[in-house]
Design goal:
The protein is 79% helix and 0% strand. It has 321 residues and is mainly α. The chain contains 15 helices and no strands. α1 (2-33) packs across α11, α4 (79-98) runs antiparallel to α12 (237-260) and α12 runs parallel beside α15. It has a single domain (2-319), classed as Na+/H+ antiporter like fold. It has helices at residues 2-33, 39-65, 68-74, 79-98, 103-114, 122-130, 135-162, 171-177, 180-194, 200-211, 213-226, 237-260, 265-275, 281-290, 294-319. The two termini are 16 Å apart.
């Protein structure tokens, strides 16, 4: 009876956390439906998040959530998300062949299976579920996720569109990898490792700018979902296979690897949630940029995001064990 009540409590807490985010995202959806946002203003919110909110959020979190010793101590935890992403990617390649996914769609299928939405959904979800203590582990997974996407993912998307072998590491992929949020993350690590003192006005400014990130992310997501056409969302073997990779294979690899390489409870819980999130929004962006089946990429992101309203509470219960 005690076990069942604890499980129910975890589930209900996760549902309430998700519903909190749904209310904020729903606000963006309603405002978009009422025509508040022009094309320019719709583009402004992601820019505010990416260029103004996330970099100081990353910087402040790293410099205030870790000590130098803790950063070095927990760096080994990167092995788990890196291993999970690579395993999921490898298994999705096998699944793509079994399902006979067309070559022009295979890059979106495999990369979408391996890469999750670690910031635009992962950040607010983990904050809602676990509080500020989860942020350092969110960033560790983000680092692994982003590194894979802008190296292997970028290469495969380009190759899928052009039919020519693309460089795994290039000046372009390096520039994309060193995005403003990643630079904030790396700068925070540098300051922490060097033990540099920070003036309080810089810390406070980074804190206040970072605090606007989650509401802006959810409002932006609501606006994006408003623009999704329900007619374009239809079940197919490709979509179902990708969703299986995202919601089954990916979190399962984390659970298995966490048994092999024991992690602190909170780190393990955050990694499970991060691995079970929807397809990363950058998959749709990059597939559109390279013209590598952009429609499938957009549908994969939209459908997996809608399904996450159900899967996030379920995986919050699983992560609590």
């Amino acid at each position: 009876m005690l076990y069942e009540s604890m499980t129910l409590a975890v589930f209900l807490n996760a549902v309430q956390c998700v519903l909190t985010l749904v209310v904020i995202g729903g606000t963006g959806y309603i405002l978009a439906k009422r025509g508040w946002f022009s094309a320019d203003s719709q583009a402004l919110l992601p820019k505010l998040v990416t260029l103004v909110g996330l970099p100081p959020c990353m910087f402040y979190t790293i410099t205030h959530s870790f000590t130098r010793e803790e950063l070095l101590q927990y760096a080994y935890g990167l092995l788990v998300p890196v291993g999970s992403i690579l395993l999921t990617f490898g298994l999705s390649l096998i699944l793509a062949r079994l399902l006979k996914i067309p070559m022009q769609r295979r890059a979106v299928f495999t990369v979408g299976s391996a890469v999750s939405n670690t910031i635009f959904i992962g950040l607010p979800v983990n904050l809602a579920l676990f509080g500020q203590e989860a942020l350092p582990y969110v960033l560790l997974y983000y680092f692994a996720n982003t590194s894979f996407f802008w190296s292997v993912g970028n290469s495969l998307m380009a190759e899928s569109a052009t039919g020519r072998k693309a460089a795994l590491f290039s000046r372009t992929s390096l520039k994309l990898f060193l995005s403003p949020p990643m630079l904030g993350f790396l700068l925070g690590i540098l300051v922490l490792l060097l033990g540099l003192p920070l003036p309080s006005f810089i810390s406070n400014a980074a804190k206040y700018l970072g605090e606007m990130t989650v509401p802006l992310i959810m409002i932006s997501l609501g606006i994006t979902l408003h623009g999704t056409r329900p007619r374009s969302i239809a079940p197919s073997r490709e979509l179902l296979g990708l969703l299986a990779g995202r919601f089954i294979i990916s979190p399962l690899t984390i659970i298995i690897l966490a048994q092999i390489l024991p992690l602190p409870d909170l780190m393990r819980q955050v990694f499970i949630i991060q691995a079970s999130l929807p397809v990363g929004a950058s998959v749709a962006l990059l597939s559109a940029y390279y013209r590598a089946d952009a429609e499938f990429g957009t549908v994969a992101v939209s459908v997996s995001t809608l399904l996450s309203l159900v899967t996030i509470p379920a995986f919050a219960v699983i992560a609590s064990f």
